[in-house]
Design a protein that fits this description.
Blueprint (H helix, E strand, L loop, with lengths): L1 H22 L1 E5 L6 E7 L4 E8 L2 E11 L3 E6 L9 E5 L4 E5 L11 E4 L2 E4 L3 E2 L4 E2 L3 E3 L1
Antiparallel strand pairs: 1-2, 1-12, 2-3, 3-4, 4-5, 5-8, 6-7, 8-9, 9-12, 10-11
Length: about 140
């Protein structure tokens, strides 16, 4: 019985790893233009880098991804949690609200895997831009 359980585990791990390898690559949005970009890089080890920007508003989010029924599922690294931390900084006459940047929580949006492209099922709002278009494999 133990051999059967171990075999099933190894087989499912191999299948999941094979699916991650098949989708690995760099995908650029079809909506990329001068000073506007959205690029998803998927690595064979199951990690991702999502970079985006419009002009001077730009950032990168990292984390891990998995493949489930032709869908990509993402989990941001902890430093890119979508919590907004606000602190007040007071000077002699002014109070400023200093907040941490708001990064898109990619775990909220599944992405469809197509032939040579990936596409978010819903819009990804990064604060700089809202992306909902296909990302083609470079």
């Amino acid at each position: 019985m133990r051999i059967i359980g171990t075999t099933i585990f190894l087989l499912s791990t191999t299948i999941a790893f094979t699916q991650v390898n098949e989708v690995a690559g760099t995908f650029s949005s079809v909506n990329n233009k001068f000073e506007r970009w959205s690029v998803m890089t998927l690595d064979q080890n199951g990690t991702f880098i999502y970079s985006y920007g419009v002009g001077g508003c730009q950032a990168k989010v990292t984390g891990t991804f998995s493949v489930d029924n032709s869908m990509l599922k993402f989990v941001n690294d902890s430093e890119f949690a979508s919590k907004v931390n606000t602190e007040d900084m007071t000077t002699d006459s002014l109070t400023y609200n200093i907040g941490t940047p708001l990064y898109p929580d990619l775990s909220l949006v599944d992405w469809k895997i197509g032939k040579n492209f990936i596409k978010p099922l819903n819009s990804v709002d990064s604060g700089c831009l809202v992306e909902s278009g296909k990302h083609k494999l470079n």
